[in-house]
Structure formats: C-alpha cells, structure tokens
C-alpha cells in the first residue's frame, strides 16, 4: 500500500472522486448566463479549474474556455483530457489572487469553494480586482462558498465512493476543523482510499480554508466596487433565493461587472 501527501499529486483519482453533480452545476451556470447576462456569453474563464470538470463540459457545449490553476499537474491532466476529446482550451498557470489577461471574458466561474484558499480579506479583494480586470463591463462572475450551519459544533464529515473502470475511490472529506474564531480560518482534510486494479493507495491532503458569511461577502463586494450583486442562490437552485432558505449548505453568488470600476483595475 502506497501513501501520498496530496490528492493534487494524482489528478486522475481526484477527478474520479469529485465528479459529482457537475452536469447539473453546468446547467445552472448556463441558466445564469441567460438570466443575468446583458448579452450572449461566449468566452468563459474557469478560475481554480482543477481537473477541468466544469471547463471541459462548457467547452463541449460550445463555449470558448480558459482554465486558470496554480497546479501544473492539474493543468497537464486537463490538457490531456481535452486533447483526447478534440478540445483546445487555453490553460494558464497563475495565482487566483493575481492574474491578468489581454482579452476580456464574458463570464468567470470559481467553484468547489475554491475561494476558501483566500485566507484574508486582503486576498479576497485582490482576487476580486483580478477577476474584474479579466471581465468586460457587464460580464458575470459566478462562484460558490460553503456556509457553516453550526458554528458552535462545526466539524463536518462526508464520505462517498466513486468508480470508473477498474478504479474505485472512497472519499472522506472533513471540514470546519480547528477553527480560529477571529480569523475564521479552519482546516479541511481530504482522504482518498484508492483501489486501482490490484494496488491500493491512501492519498491525504490537509489545508487551511477561510469561512465567509453572507453579510461579510456582501460587504467585501461593496468594498471592491467593481461588481454589483445580481443574485445569490442556495445550493445551485436557480429558482430559490438565499434569503428564503433555512440552513443552506452553499451560497452561489452571481456578480455583474460594472462599467464604473476604478481605472487602475481595468488594465
């Protein structure tokens, strides 16, 4: 039995493990494009694209897509998957809090609570500035954030199993561990128990993440000044409002890039 320190070192196993509800999420994205976009959306930027589960589905639906991720292994995996499908997405290795593109996109997405890797308000605002630079005026930014439903006893654990061919991956995901109530930073752990043919591997990943509550998120959007909050929905349900939902697991926010963003953010 082999043990590895990070699931990001094994993108194929990570891709199998987290291939859950991605088609429905892409359906949600397209519905948001039509409902909240000011014109037709053609170019989409996938921030923290990971193994490309949303990126490649959107490419197959006819969008011109760009994937941004900090992991070279993830990007190499996405490139291989895309080539086998006859797709040619643009792929860029960059930090989600500091990136620039010469050509603006019509929409940007950042899913799987990837913004949680931004551990301070300053990093979140830097990220918003980078996204604003990457979008045309009127462009949409859609992202999800997990909401803790029990701050007093927050530790949460989920487990599930996914199979693909001869590979079986059992996933244990734990979050809201060791919370610092001042910084709202906690720890998450992912364990993949992989059976690949006759071989077993245990892959573990531990990393810090930041919790942001809805009222804080609204304040950060207002402080940034480059976006208006077009809508937010619970748990990828387009026809439900966050305000009307008890104990939602996820916020899905839809921001619209305003034309009056500060000049220094437009370069």
Supply database-style keywords:
267 residues; alpha/beta; Rossmann fold; N-terminal domain of TfIIb; 2 domains; 7-stranded mixed beta sheet; 5-stranded mixed beta sheet; 12 strands; 37% strand
Structural summary, described in words:
The protein is of the alpha/beta class. It has two domains: 10-148 and 211-265, 3-Layer(aba) Sandwich (Rossmann fold), CATH 3.40.50.150; 156-210, Single Sheet (N-terminal domain of TfIIb). The chain contains six helices and twelve strands. The strands form two sheets. The chain has a seven-stranded mixed beta sheet, sandwiched between helices. The protein has a five-stranded mixed beta sheet with strand order 1-10-9-8-7, with helices on one face. The radius of gyration is 18 Å and the shape is globular. Residues 1-5 have low confidence and may be disordered.
Number of strands: 12
* Poorly predicted tracts of residues: 1-5
SSE order, as H and E?
EHHEHEHEEHEEEEEHEE
Average the pLDDT over all residues and give the rounded result.
Answer: 92
CATH superfamily of the largest domain: Vaccinia Virus protein VP39
Instruction: Please tell me the CATH architecture of the largest domain by its name.
Output: 3-Layer(aba) Sandwich
Beta strand %: 35-45%
